[in-house]
Amino acid sequence: MVQFHALGLLYHIRSGDRLAVNKLVQKWSKSSLLSPFATCYLIRLAAKLVEEDEAGIESPFFQFIESCLRHKCEMVIYEAASAIVRLPRTTSSELSPAISVLQLFCSSPKPALRFAAVRILNKVSVKHPQAVTSCNVDLEQLITDQNRSIATLAITTLLKT
Q1: What is the number of domains present in the chain?
Q2: Of the candidates 90, 109, 138, which is a domain's last residue?
Q3: Which among 153, 157, 161, 86 is positioned nearest to 131, based on CA atoms?
Q4: Alpha-carbon distance 138 to 150, whole Å?
Q5: What is the pLDDT of residue 53?
Q6: What distance in Å separates the CA atoms of residue 84 and residue 81, rounded to the nearest whole number?
Q7: Is there a single domain that holds both residue 9 and residue 86?
Q8: Average pLDDT across the chain, whole number
Q9: Where's the Clathrin/coatomer adaptor adaptin-like N-terminal domain (predicted)?
Q10: pLDDT over threshold 90, residue 59
Q11: Using an 8 Å Cβ cutoff, are 5 and 37 in contact?
């Protein structure tokens, strides 16, 4: 938790200087953070820099976000997948690693993970319905989920694809 607060404070101090924020994210993305909260915050900062950068997907920050899809903590994996999906200029092929992670979350025994995955897949299906078609089998299984919110989101996502 200390790393999260330290990173937040450093960002707040340097938020006016784009180059300083760039260096901050570069430095912390190369070191291994112990706190998953700090890693999630760093993913959000990196995604913000990727959005503002003209290089976009070729940015080293995008590679950092993509590498976080293989993290051991589910919260970090979810945040990385969510950040990739929220990027404005992504193609279906660039979304595929995030979609495959969300597909794994759809079969999770934890209802919160299933809901989070279906919620993001629902948002993706608006812009990139072809990218979500690989998850149709998993989404069909979620139609009969005990949680009605998950089932409803699964149905609406399937209708969009």
Answers
A1: 2
A2: 90
A3: 161
A4: 12
A5: 81
A6: 5
A7: yes
A8: 91
A9: 1-161
A10: no
A11: no
CB-based contacts of 78, cutoff 8 Å, min separation 6: 105, 113, 116, 117
CB 86 within 8 A of CB 62: no
**What domain range is 58 assigned to?**
1-90
d(CA 27, CA 61): 11
Q: In the chain, which residue ranges form alpha helices assigned H by DSSP?
A: 2-14, 18-30, 36-52, 60-67, 74-86, 92-106, 111-127, 129-132, 136-141, 148-160
| Identity at 92, one-letter amino acid code | S
Q: What is the pTM of this model?
A: 0.90
Contacts 24+ apart (CB under 8 A), 94-97: 94/57, 95/124, 95/128, 95/131, 96/131, 97/66, 97/69
In this structure, the answer to whether residues 106 and 151 fall within a common structural domain is yes
pLDDT for position 89: 83
Place of tokens 């998993």: 138
121-137 pLDDT, tens per residue? 999 999 999 989 998 99
